Amino acid sequence: MMSRVSMPPIERRTVRHPIDRRTALRAGLLAGAAVVGAGAAGVGLTGCESSPSAETLLAETLVPLVRSANADESTARALVAVEPAYATALSVVADQRAQHARALREEIIRLDQDVAATLDRPVTSATASTSAAGVPSAPPSLARLRADLDAAAGQARAVALSAGGYASGLTGSVAAAVASMRQVQLA
Question: Is 130 helix (H, G, I), strand (E, B) or coil?
């Protein structure tokens, strides 16, 4: 039989760690959260999100339609006193264009709040009282309103064809309504 050799006992030393387990776990969780937080905050800083979203781009294409609708409404209201034979038709055009501006503005707000904030800023290329060359613009006329409505219908049609979903239907409806106003109300 084999004899058992006895070995000297192993001394167990108790090593005291200056950080207990609970503190280490808390520190790990905090460090992980900091890395995730820094990564999320840094997405915009690193250039990963450098291009605008599809919603932002769509909202930006709707801005000129709102401005056009507002300008057409103002012109139509100004012409009511100048063109009494067309007063009723001009009131209809003004009311319809105001509704178009409101509906388009609501869609822009839904798509992108930052773009919606730009709607109330004045256009810098030309103001309402002067042309781009600095010459006072001509007073509103029925012929000019007709031309503006034709241009607005074409612009809305182009957006309707390039957009998708609700915005396409909205701009298509605006294009059809403007074309109809031009051909029927202001014939």
Answer: strand
SS3 181: helix
Q: Which of 158, 80, 162 is nearest to 178 (CA)?
A: 158
- Reported as a single tens digit per residue, the pLDDT across 51-66 is 899 999 999 999 999 9
Q: C-alpha angle with apex 160: 159 to 164, nearest 5 degrees?
A: 105
Alpha-carbon gap, residue 119 to 22, rounded angstroms: 54
Q: Is the pTM of this model over 0.70?
A: no
Length, in residues, of the chain: 187
From residue 3, alpha-carbon distances to 7, 8, 88 in Å are 12, 16, 120
Dihedral sign computed on CA atoms, order 45, 47, 49, 50? positive
Which residue stretches of the chain are H helix?
21-46, 54-82, 87-111, 113-117, 142-162, 165-180
User: How much is the pLDDT for 126?
Assistant: 45
Tokens of 72: 């057409």
Decide if 101 contacts 71 (C-beta within 8 A): no
Low-confidence spans in the chain with pLDDT less than 50: 43-46, 126-134
Report the candidate in 145, 62, 59, 66 with the shortest Cα–Cα distance to residue 100.
66
Q: Which amino acid is at 179?
A: A
* Closest CA relative to residue 103, chosen from 170, 14, 13: 170
